[in-house]
Specification:
Strand 12, helix 3 and strand 13 form a beta-alpha-beta unit. The strands form four sheets. A nine-stranded mixed sheet has the order 2-6-7-10-1-11-12-13-14. It has a three-stranded antiparallel sheet with strand order 5-4-15, with no helix packed on it. Strands 3-16 form a two-stranded antiparallel sheet. The N and C termini lie far apart (64 Å). The mean pLDDT is 90. It is built from 15 helices and 16 strands. The chain has 485 residues and is α+β, with helices and mostly antiparallel strands.
Length: 485
Amino acid sequence: MTQYEAVIGLEVHAELLTDSKMFCGCRVVDSVTAPPNSAVCPVCLGMPGMLPVINRRAVALAIRVGLALNCEIKRDNVFARKSYFYPDLPKGYQISQYELPLCENGYLDITDGEGGRKRIGIRRVHMEEDTGKLTHLGDGRSLVDYNRSGVPLLEIVSEPDMRSAAEVLAYATQLRQILRHLRVNNGDMEKGVIRFEANISVRPAGGSALNTRTEVKNLNSFRALTGATDFEIARQIALVEGGGTVVQQTLGWHEARQETFSQRGKEDAHDYRYFPEPDLPPLAIPEAWIAAERAALPELPAARQARYRSEYALAADDAAQLSDTPDVAAWFDALVAAAEADKTVTPQDGANWVLNALFALLNEHGRAIDEIPITPPHLVALISLVKRGAINSSTGREVLALMFSTGEPPATIVEARGLAQISDAGALSTVIDEIIASNPDEAARYRDGDTRLSGWFVGQAMRATRGKADPALVNRLLREKLGPN
């Protein structure tokens, strides 16, 4: 039986985080919550006689993305008209780039699920304007909202270097991380500010041909991206095996049925009748501008993960989680800086508390890390209290929850609520004597070899002290009083 492999390229459309649109002064608004058609003007509505003007901030962000993706930044590039007719495109054409894009010939190194590394080529990164948003009512009518029309959009086109849905997911995930760390896109897939389109074909394994491909449009979740990729690979293989022919077409993804469906024949470049935009001059990028954007690049996720692993000896998964978003990474870096001043807390201590206790509170309350009243120095102070034995780890989590709701420093909470750990052997000895005296049957069973009761006795001691007893001291005293079993 012939073995097949997939050949996959990805087109990523990412809205740029600018205050105004690409070619006019209209503000960029949330396309989900803003009233429909409330941020429009004659330019983005395509009224006759209106002239576009290039958004400098959008160009700066696009250059930054190109540099982060190891692209060549083209000093001279041109905007073009891409003609097609659809209700969400009021002019009847989209201002985009074609022959002379801003960025070319880059790459992104991905890590697959098994820890392997692979380089995915970036063919081009170019600027364009977004279209409007259609809402289909299901009764043959549709509504159009032009708030999104004209929003600066970046199209990032990969080479067809991916061979599986796992590689597609790794590429898309890491690309989204980079865009978020650059703060050029917030990565909110549910609101459509980043969308994926997969170009998929199949061929006999080991071949070099680029066979007829299909394009699955407007995938706005990782689940949809991987589901559509897997389905389309299997569909094309079954079609070829059955003697059929893959037809070049544009497909949609039906989430409920978990299958692709045909939308229209796939266009080629000549179908769009590209020609230079006559209302915009060629865009010349001075070398000094490129140098300034290069200097403004932040530490990117892959470099940050490598630093966390080499400098702090964090596990790969921990480093990946802490560097996933720029806000979490910045918060953790501030925590490490505070820990260096404290001397008792290590980066690993901080990572453990952030990933386990703090993330649990963020998930429970639906909050982002930049929205909470806890500061990195306050968390370091809490961890220090636990490590020095002033409170135990269970009380530490209780204090963290109170810090989360009140913003108070840990020492204030511990003192005000009397939560300091009981480490006085004499006081705990009295408590344990009372527990043993009150539970003679359990004490006898323990002495007869039922060691499972050790945890039960510790629990009784913690309950009697409202969780404030030093667990290590409780265990030692119990062994002394009950015997070594």
